[in-house]
Design goal:
alpha+beta; Tetrahydropterin Synthase, Chain A; about 25% strand; HflK
Length: about 300
Amino acid sequence: MRKYVWIVVFIVLGIYFLTGVYQVGPSEVALLKTFGRFTSVVPSGIHYHLPYPIQSHVTVDVTTVRKIEIGFRSIQRGERISYQSVPQEAIMITGDNNLVSVEAVVQYRVKDPVAYAFNITEADSIVRFTTESVLREKVAMRSIDDVLTSGRDEIGFKTAQMLQEILDSYNCGIKVENVYLQEVVPPDPVVDAFDDVNNARQDKERLINEARKYANDVVPKAQGQAQEILRQAEAYAQEVYLKALGEAKRFEEVLEEYSKAPDITRKRMLLDALQSLLEKSENKVFFVGNGDSLNILNISDLLKGMGK
């Protein structure tokens, strides 16, 4: 009887010691504890430690990227995945006091398995609440136009930076891989009003662009016409200037001749003036006087009579 008792004891002890055999997956590490205190990190593979309560282990996945959803939840029904909005997380206030619905996704992994396993509990909740707080702060610093358009990527980037700083201060062993805004839209109750404002803004931009296009077409033409008028004025001024120089030169030459022979020069100038006047007149009449009588001579008639 005693023999069977010892056999049972050995079997129980064997089973007890075999409970120390454990396997660590390819993406995991094991944290070995002795009497409840952490002693070492064990890599992937099959390992053995003394049975509980002498030794125990905790496995931590250090390569899988975890995902946290802010403002919505993914619901899988069979092979289909649907999305359910969470307004209490999604609705945020922008810097210009507008409401906006923000849905974001946070991706993170474990960078320090010891801190992750022993310093925090419910890591997903910590990441979710911290991300939501940081995201609200970043959205509150931007206008609604910025949040809806060009500022989305920058908001996600700065949220990830600040989130990492806060998590590091918690010493929770988490590495933030990415924060991106999946959907940013006005809340359903104000969508129509927002669309009206957006359409009005687009009309304004269209009118401004049309005005600029018209200005770009008219202004160069006006500038070209102004340049043409300016060139014509400069050419006319140059012509008048040169003509004045010529007249002055001619006057100087006449003055020089006049100073040499005043009577001859005076008669010559008189004859030149008469010739110029006669060339411009079709009918030429002279008044010739000799004392008390005055005779009128029509040169045109005389020329006709002479056959000219």
